[in-house]
Amino acid sequence: MSPNQPAPRARKSPEQVRSAVHQAVLDLLSDPEGADLSIPAIAQRAGVNHTSVYRRWGSREALLADVVTTRLEKDSPLADTGSLRGDLVAWAEAGVASIRTPEGRLLIRAVALSMSGSATAQGGRAEQFQRRIASIEKIRDRATARGEHPPPLEQILDQLIAPLYLRAIFGIAPPPTGYPDLLVSRLLDTPPAPNTP
Questions:
Q1: Could you read off the pLDDT tens digit of each residue along the chain, which spans 197 residues?
Q2: Of 53, 68, 120, 142, whose CA is between 20 and 30 Å from 84?
Q3: CA distance 159 to 88
Q4: In degrees to the nearest 10, what's the CA dihedral of 67, 70, 74, 75?
């Protein structure tokens, strides 16, 4: 190789590619001028080939869903409090805390953007969000193992998860302190903890 020839770019591992692409998405989402969020633009920002992005995620919608789910999994680990109520409140409180951060607000924008696209793209998006739903199923399974009687998954989605994230998607003021506890109380039909508004 000629001494004036640039050294070939080091090949990234699959995890390095994923990390770089995720960060590129967040960087572009935070651009106040509304940067291009196409897969070629994301790939260029991440320093990877756009074919690698298509090969791994298949669509922009699936990629955005992966970014959102991965960040929420990182910020909202599954706490084992010893009770169904405690687990659900801890899960919801971690989600609210994440939404309140600047990065969390970017993720909500990513959720909204991921809702567009073809049927194939939506399938990829649903597959990524299924990981988030699986965490709720783990909470239900733990409760059942303890002899508790958790509500059906659909009821948890409708009465706990939907109110939390729809507030953020539609730009409603952040949930007040104690809001997760209040939602869980309504879901389980139990009195809220003291000092819950």
A1: 444 444 445 677 889 999 999 999 989 888 877 678 889 999 999 999 999 999 999 888 888 888 888 887 776 667 899 999 999 999 888 888 877 777 777 777 677 766 666 666 566 666 667 877 888 999 999 999 999 999 999 999 999 988 887 777 776 777 788 899 999 999 998 655 555 44
A2: 68
A3: 12
A4: 50
Q: How far is CA 98 from each of CA 1, 90, 93, 105, rounded to the nearest angstrom? A: 49, 12, 9, 8
- What tokens does 113 get? 């953007």
Comparing CA positions, the residue from 176, 52, 62, 178 lying closest to residue 111 is 62
User: What is the Cα–Cα distance from 103 to 131, expressed in whole angstroms?
Assistant: 20
The single-letter DSSP state of residue 115 is T
Q: pLDDT tens digits, residue range 98-121? A: 777 777 777 776 777 666 666 665
Task: Check: CB of residue 61 under 8 Å from CB of residue 117.
Answer: yes
CA distance 2 to 119: 49
Residue 120 half-sphere exposure, CB side, CA atoms within 13 Å?
5
Quote the CA–CA distance of 187 and 179 in Å, as a whole number.
12
The residue behind tokens 């009465």 is 159
